[in-house]
Amino acid sequence: MELTDNARKWFVATLLVGTFTMSISQSSLSTAYPTFMRYFNLPASTIAWLTTGFMLVMSVVMPLSPWLMNNFKFKPLYLTLLGIFAVGTIVIIIAPNFPIMMVGRLMEAISVGILFPSYQSIILEITPQEKRGTIMGTVGLVMGSALAVGPIISGVLLQVLNWQAIFGLFLVVLLVVFLLALRTIISPREIKASKFDFISVFYSLGIIGLLYFINEIKQMTMSNYLSWMILVISIILLWLFVRRQLTSKTPLLRLDILKIANFDLGVALTSLSYMSLITVTIVMPLYYQQILGMSPLWSGLSLVPAAALLSWLNRQSGKMADRVGFKPTIMIGFGLFIIGWLLLFAISGLHNVWLAIIGSMVVEAGNAFAMMPATTLGANSLTDDLIPHGSSIIATIRQIMGSTAIVVATVILGNGNFKGVFLTFLILEIIAMLLVFVIKDSTKKQVS
Question: Major facilitator superfamily (MFS) profile domain: which residues (predicted)?
């Protein structure tokens, strides 16, 4: 379905505002953990399931996105996802205890997990290939800034209001988005009905087991047989999932597209970029508090310069990718990653807040030139009918690698080994830079 430029702008804007609001829910709760601990009288390890459980459920529903997009019109699907998130948020606000709160939180996770790959697929499909860099730069602005400003927004709200205000804000904004969506969202894709593959969905539960194991590594011992058993079962399930997708005539997820040139690199590079972004947004507030002695509020506000720079540069990097190509743009991104982590490594012993802020700004600037251009590079190597599968693969792997990055950073950090964290991610991004040189300059659509 052809859209006018004005209709496309409203369509994309409505998607992005909704996605921004739902994205904040991923990162905003870490600041509120002490408040939840006091309110429910529970330890931090239990409260952490608000984030861990959210991430696990979100990851396992991501592979369902291509099937849902092929079997349901996008407008009712999008409105339903907004509705599920809103109901989950209401459940959280009125929850009398923590288990009920978790039910609402998992409802939010289902909505976000399906929406993340879906909205990127739709935006890519309705945008001409020569303009995709620019529009995906805006998508990157939403994803990156939401991840960065989530702790800031929750920190400010908790200074003046109760924790329910965080979710109340989500609810108000999503109500506005829902009303906008009734007028601006359309269903541009044709329905291609297919049977739902329950067996593949069962096998995909291995993702939950794998992510659970990754998150438990930091407190595991070799004698923790249950966790090791979960890992073994999860690996078996994932192997069965991969085999089924590669042999089925109508797979739930087209994993065979990972053989397409540039798409494989797009997946790897966007994941490596996201690993640095999520690590810097989690580690730097700890650095400001533990090393520089700053309050939680000021440690959150210290992320503002980097978040603002990331937001501004995402649009610029997208325009640059359309103008000069993806390879040089991505190369600049990983170059900035290397400089940023090197700077943080070099100044970690100086205890200077301004140098630390500059270092984090350079790292997040690297993400602006790397993550969404790499995602678009991968999408441009696919035909339109494969883009939903590509977006789902990228989102799922990026989530797994982001979780892995958090665990790696936490294990290395220990009781304050920030220098070790900075060195580890410096080495990781040097390796990523080597992959950039493998990118083929020409990205013609291919059929697998």
Answer: 11-444
